[in-house]
Amino acid sequence: MPTPVKVQPETISTPTPQGHEITPRDRRFGRDADHARDKYWLNGDPIGTAFYDALSLTFPRGEAYFIESVKEFRDCAPPKLQREIRAFVKQEVIHSREHLALNRRLEERGFDISRIEERITESLNMTQGRPKIANLASTMTLEHYTAILAKELLANPRHMAGAEQETADLWRWHALEEIEHKGVAYDTWLYATKDWTRWQRWKVKALILYAVTVNFWRNRFTDTLDLLAQDGIKGWRVKLKFLSFLLARPGMGRKMIIPCVKFLLPGFHPWNEDDRHLIDLADSEYEAALLDRDATDSLKAA
């Protein structure tokens, strides 16, 4: 069993690798007017395409929520964690920009995304007025979710097998940066709760994980079926095929079960599992896009 994570009052000591750098990569995808925009860009599969399209719709506003939740604790954090939070913010800002562009292409293909956006708004409205620490807890849990998705997407090429190249590149780029900053929200949580007992932390984590899991999969199921229905793809057979997509092949939902259980074990930390080799594997394609440390004013102000 992992040794319980220790957090000191003025510094933060966690399994985050020493010398690990978070490097924003300023990539742009699908801006070419001649770029292929296949309706079912994921190997001609409407279900897989709809799943990732529905997930993409959550990112612009969802990542804005993550940014604000973490920034609330930045100024009182240790210097190293402050730097990591700033890099995290820059990465998330660029992710939001690229998913906005991807989502516009979804609308250009004739999809009505208003109902999905309304559900996203309703979910975010529920966070209004909550204690800052509650929003941080939700963020570090959802960041764990995205890190699991990211690892699985990069480790198993079958998830993007046969996908339209530019869209697959976007998802792989997003995934490598999610792995790269996977410990930031959790380290911020550890520092913000440094005076809590382990039992207090565990109770909040368990409650938030339950709520996040229920809401995440309920909304992904509803949103994916919404997009499919707009194409006339509906009925109980479609629901069974979608469940098979999640739980059998390629099985992204099934692959998330054990990592979610580990989230509740004593001593959990995202970097207990060092998967930087996946970053190195994917990063070779993006060296030309490394964001200069003197990034644009809009990113500096984030």
Strand and helix layout:
Blueprint: H1 46-71, H2 79-108, H3 114-125, H4 132-155, H5 165-180, H6 184-192, H7 198-230, H8 236-247, H9 252-255, H10 257-262, H11 276-283, H12 297-300
Helix pairs in contact: 1-2, 1-3, 1-4, 1-7, 2-5, 2-6, 4-5, 4-6, 4-7, 5-11
Overall body shape: globular
Largest sheet: none
Query: If classified by CATH, what would the architecture be?
Result: Up-down Bundle
CATH topology value:
Ferritin
Radius of gyration: 19 Å
Order of helices and strands: HHHHHHHHHHHH
Domain tally: 1
Please state the oligomeric state of the protein chains shown: single chain
User: What is the CA-CA span between the terminal residues?
Assistant: 38 Å
**Tell me, what is the CATH class?**
Mainly Alpha
Count the beta strands.
Answer: 0
Q: How confident overall, as mean pLDDT?
A: 89
Query: Strand percentage, roughly?
Result: under 5%
Structural class: mainly alpha
**Contiguous runs where pLDDT drops below 50 for at least 5 residues:** 1-11, 293-302
SS field, number of helical segments? 12
Helix content: 55-70%
Protein name: Metal-dependent hydrolase
InterPro entries: UCP07580 (IPR016516)
Keywords: Hydrolase
Region (Disordered): 1-26
